[in-house]
Design goal:
247 residues, alpha+beta, Jelly Rolls, Arc Repressor Mutant, subunit A, 9 helices
């Protein structure tokens, strides 16, 4: 991804990983590539959006934020994969969803002006686009196109998390994994085209709440049913409608 110009670079070492905090301001053409909502802005709105977004790099395993933190930026994935997760009262890790390239998260916390209710973790070296609060609320109060996007985003997220609850309560491992993969091809949440998913079996397992071994078995079952193809460095979905309904 090409970035307009360099601002500064720092690194912060924490007990849970090293966050590589290279910060740059985003170029107009780059924002249009990673944000479907930007295509519906006027030129004035698009310029304002670019002025309010910086890009930062994070290393694999680093925390973008912890539950309870105030992250005063709307967060988009420029490259890489972001995990949204939480911990139960007993300490069990719960994977809520993954955000792939082109996906944005955190609009609810921005609108409610509240701390994040989840962890954001870099599942690989990645780059995030961070929009500051002032710009977010300016677009919210000014742009019809931006508000239409937010409504579609909320609607899809609601459907996603209702489905997640169903998966946890009623489905076995292959079905949970199938539905998790299918959600990563939702055209509203992740508008990036193509049938290939550049995820390792370990990453797919983490997003599905499964061990690597269980994810491997589930993927092989789905491959035998011609729903997907396991490849070096990822998977290719062969039948998305069937995968989305798999139970």
């Amino acid at each position: 991804m090409r970035i307009a110009f360099f601002v500064h670079c720092t690194s912060e070492c924490t007990g849970r990983g090293i966050a590589l905090r290279t910060q740059t301001v985003i170029a107009r053409e780059d924002l249009l590539q990673i944000a479907s909502w930007a295509q519906h802005l006027t030129e004035r709105e698009l310029r304002r959006a670019c002025e309010g977004i910086v890009c930062k790099n994070f290393s694999k395993g680093s925390y973008v934020c912890h539950r309870g933190d105030r992250l005063d930026s709307w967060t988009g994935v420029a490259t890489g994969l972001l995990k949204v997760s939480a911990f139960s009262k007993t300490g069990k890790a719960i994977s809520l969803t993954g955000i792939r390239s082109g996906g944005w998260v955190g609009e609810g916390a921005m609108l409610k002006d509240e701390p994040r209710q989840y962890d954001l973790v870099a599942m690989r070296d990645m780059q995030l686009a961070l929009m500051n609060q002032v710009t977010f609320f300016w677009l919210y109060e000014t742009s019809v196109g931006f508000n239409h996007f937010l409504v579609r985003q909320f609607n899809e997220r609601l459907g996603q998390f209702i489905a997640l609850l169903e998966h946890e309560r009623t489905m076995d491992a292959p079905a949970r994994l199938a539905r998790t993969v299918a959600w990563l091809f939702n055209p509203v949440l992740y508008p990036e085209p193509g049938a290939h998913l550049d995820l390792s079996q370990e990453e797919i397992g983490l997003l599905s709440g499964l061990s690597r071994q269980s994810a491997n078995k589930a993927l092989k079952i789905l491959e035998r049913e011609n729903l997907l193809s396991i490849e070096r460095g990822g998977i290719t979905v062969l039948d998305l409608p069937r995968l989305a309904r798999y139970d």
